């Protein structure tokens, strides 16, 4: 018997257990979320004759010992260690994984565990889905960003000739096991990066989450288990209703059209910033655009901008790079027939997608960001 209470919410079945993790049996993926998830997950693994773990060198040092100590009875047949970092999310490393799986004589009965942040789950899901036309995989995210975003939703892939996520496919893992225990060794920069995505859920779909967080600095937050559970469920709800991103899933792109241009700009300058830093800046600009279009109260704009300002430093950019940023935005996957399409806010907790924005409006939002002017 799994748990105490079963209830239906947004077409998902949640089973609340005596221990605190939540088991979501949502076909074809099951989720275990919250403190205790790692220990609980051993029952997902028992039917696989061979288990291979994919990780990077930092995860090998910090998280593999945690994994082994919580579920010592799980026998691991092999470990594949890739190099960490976004610049390593490429076909060479996917090839390395295929090589290792081949050397280990892995067949379709085996399970690949992606233990790591978004780089590991993106490349691991891609490698698993394409090896022998697909072997099963389970994501065990170890970064905040992985827990609330990258490990959920079936987007897998690699970067290619300088373009992010250029080659890849939608393919769901068997399960996603989200246990905050792994976060103990995560550095401040990576916490902050994931926090930007948490704030995004508050703004686009979850007013209650925004209310819990508003006005707080990341260092003041102590109820991470609750926050991760809420944010992960928000993402699950969205991808469950629109797996292939035909409609509502596009709302997750709030902050990302302008944010990605910042991310690419700094990457090209060889001064990479985290995804979260870029998206936080993008959300400031896109909140300004939202207010111009949907005319919500000034206090609301102020509240959102202040929340980002107390948690993220403004990026060091000036107006002379605006044409470069616009060019980068035109290369975005969301551009259709040369038009810039945005996901914006109607109000806190409600987003809208496919909003066409002119280059002049984008320039206005960038100037607002750079000049910190109201
Ligand atoms: N598939 C999706 O839907 C989706 C969504 C968002 C982001 N992403 C992708 O996710 C990637 C970013 O993910 P990320 O922010 O997790 O970065 P990451 O995977 O590069 O991890 C960040 C760093 O933290 C280290 N690390 C991981 N867990 C640790 C731990 N517990 N303790 C100490 N160090 C640890 C890693 O080795 C790495 O150096 C990007 O490639 C992005 O494109 C994918």
Helix and strand arrangement:
Elements: E1 5-9, E2 12-16, E3 22-26, E4 29-33, H1 37-40, H2 42-45, E5 51-56, H3 57-62, H4 64-70, E6 78-82, H5 91-103, E7 111-116, H6 118-130, E8 137-141, H7 144-150, E9 155-160, E10 163-170, E11 175-178, H8 188-204, H9 207-213, H10 224-241, H11 256-268, H12 275-294, H13 298-311, H14 322-330, E12 340-347, E13 350-357, H15 359-371
Parallel strand pairs: 4-11, 5-6, 5-7, 7-8, 8-11
Antiparallel strand pairs: 1-2, 2-3, 3-4, 9-10, 12-13
Helix pairs in contact: 5-6, 6-7, 7-8, 7-10, 8-9, 8-12, 11-12, 11-14, 12-13, 12-15
The protein binds nicotinamide-adenine-dinucleotide (NAD).
Structure, described:
By secondary structure, the chain is α/β, with parallel strands linked by helices. The chain folds into two domains: 5-186, Rossmann fold (3-Layer(aba) Sandwich); 193-217 and 232-371, Up-down Bundle (Dehydroquinate synthase-like, alpha domain), CATH 1.20.1090. 44% of the residues lie in helices and 20% in strands. Strands 1-2-3-4-11-8-7-5-6 form a nine-stranded mixed sheet. Strands 9-10 form a two-stranded antiparallel sheet. Strands 12-13 form a two-stranded antiparallel sheet. The longest helix is centred in the last third of the chain and has 20 residues, at 275-294. The structure holds nicotinamide-adenine-dinucleotide. Nicotinamide-adenine-dinucleotide binds next to α3, α6, α7 and α8.
């Amino acid at each position: 018997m799994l748990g105490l209470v079963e209830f239906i919410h947004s077409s998902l079945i949640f089973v609340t257990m005596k221990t605190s993790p939540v088991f979501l049996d949502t076909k074809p993926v099951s989720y275990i979320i919250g403190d205790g998830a790692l220990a609980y997950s051993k029952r997902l693994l028992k039917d696989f004759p061979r288990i291979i773990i994919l990780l990077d060198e930092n995860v090998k040092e910090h998280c593999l010992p945690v994994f082994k100590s919580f579920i010592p009875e799980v026998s691991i047949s092999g470990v594949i260690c890739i190099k960490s970092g976004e610049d390593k999310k490429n076909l060479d490393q996917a090839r390395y994984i295929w090589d290792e799986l081949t050397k280990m004589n892995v067949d379709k009965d085996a399970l690949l565990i992606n233990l790591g942040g978004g780089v590991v789950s993106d490349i691991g899901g891609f490698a698993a889905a394409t090896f022998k036309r697909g072997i099963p995989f389970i994501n065990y995210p170890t970064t905040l960003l992985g827990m609330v975003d990258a490990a959920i939703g079936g987007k897998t892939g690699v970067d290619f000739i300088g373009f992010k996520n250029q080659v890849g496919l939608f393919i769901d893992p068997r399960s996603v096991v989200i246990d905050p225990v792994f976060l103990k060794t995560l550095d401040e920069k990576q916490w902050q990066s994931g926090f930007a995505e948490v704030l995004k859920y508050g703004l686009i779909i979850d007013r209650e989450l925004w209310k819990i967080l508003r006005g707080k600095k990341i260092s003041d937050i102590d109820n991470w288990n609750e926050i991760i559970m809420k944010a992960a469920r928000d993402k699950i709800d969205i991808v469950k209703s629109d797996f292939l991103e035909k409609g509502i899933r596009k709302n997750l792109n709030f902050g990302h059209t302008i944010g990605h241009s910042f991310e690419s700009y700094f990457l090209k300058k060889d001064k990479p910033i985290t995804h979260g830093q870029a998206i936080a800046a993008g959300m400031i600009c896109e909140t300004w655009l939202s207010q111009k279009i949907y005319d919500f109260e000034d206090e609301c704009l102020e509240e959102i901008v202040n929340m980002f300002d107390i948690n993220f430093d403004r990026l060091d950019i000036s107006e002379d790079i605006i044409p470069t940023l616009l060019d980068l935005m035109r290369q975005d996957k969301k551009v259709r027939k040369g038009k810039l399409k945005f996901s914006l806010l109607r109000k806190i907790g409600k987003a809208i997608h496919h909003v066409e924005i002119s280059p002049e409006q984008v320039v206005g939002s960038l100037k607002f960001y750079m000049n910190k002017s109201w």
